[in-house]
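Entry for the shared binder. Reason: the reviewer on the internal report wants the predicted structure included alongside the sequence.
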Amino acid sequence: MKKRIVFIFFSIFIFVSSFYGEMTIAFFDPILTYCTKDEKNWIPVVLNNALMSQINRYSNLVPFDQATLSTTLEQIKKSEDSAYDEQFIIEAGKLIDASYLCYVKVIKISSLFNVYFNIVNATTGVPIATYEDDGTKDDLYKAGSESIVNKAVLKMLEDDLGGIHSLKNISELKKTMGWKDSDGVPVSRSEEFMVAFLPPALINCDDVWMRELLPGRLVNSFFSYSRIMPLDQGVEKTAIDKIKLSESGIYDESTITEAGKLVSAPYYCYAAITQIKRGVYQAYFNLMDTKTGKPVAIYHTSCSADWIRGLKGFNVVDLAVYTMLTENLENKYNNEYTASLGRQLQKQLKKKDIQKAKDTSSNRYSVYVDKVYVPPKERERGANTNDKNTVPVSREEALRKRFGY
């Protein structure tokens, strides 16, 4: 019943919009982090051209005039000494006559690229469609079923927006990508559970890429697998800018708590990553009530950097979000895709992340974070060697300790 009501609402919205004028979408240059000079030259051109072309081809959204957008951006840059970030894009979007804003964040981590797509309401700055993926340099410009842009366009138009902007010929793209040609249904959002996503606190940790990666990943995971509505992402930065950091300049959980009091959302969410030793981290996720300052949902685990990166697969953020939705929030804010995330995580954890190494003397398994200790006898037989300080535990206990089961 709720789905029908939401769908009827969006249908009326589109009808009224089409009567008064076309729905336009402005494409901003990607926000690039840790990319080389050469990559900063070709990535914006490749991604924007592909994104603009596919949205124009498969939706009834009309690309906003790029010349007008460029002129507006140049005027803003001259009048304000602002960094080109999400806040800049959202504020600039409010000055142009576009219905939606579309931008991409690209974070280079080692030889791989994390790519985060976002479509926001130009008036409110609130995200209405997101997609996150990762790949090599070649993956950024591949076509067909391997195209990151095609995956983003299909997911944002069909899943997040429920197909209300899609043209009939999008069925061609679905076939190319291996999707079923069924009608999309917009996911209903819960405005009373609007969440501000703040940058993570990094403790004893030099991996600054986490600060860039985690907020967008949290937004995407909550947006994709729940009915929670993200707050305007420019607001969080404004709140943090108002906070005076400690004399040492440390951005920690106390700073986050003060920033959380300034956001207009009833809830805020952040991660705290503590490096225990080289390659080993404790990841702590907290969803807080802004008024009371008390946690609504908490998840923590020990993990490796690869499990935080989650490149080429699910990650600790997806696991944290799924656990908080199903346990702390008792499935109240699940959407049509929450159960699918749970099945995918179970499948991945069983098949990919746990390596088995049988200790012949005790007939037990030894697991530490995402590595398995290989006893000396097994080592002599050519097995992989990992951390020597691993404590032998049963496989069930190892799974429970590591993944919170």
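Summary line for the report: The two ends are 34 Å apart (CA to CA).
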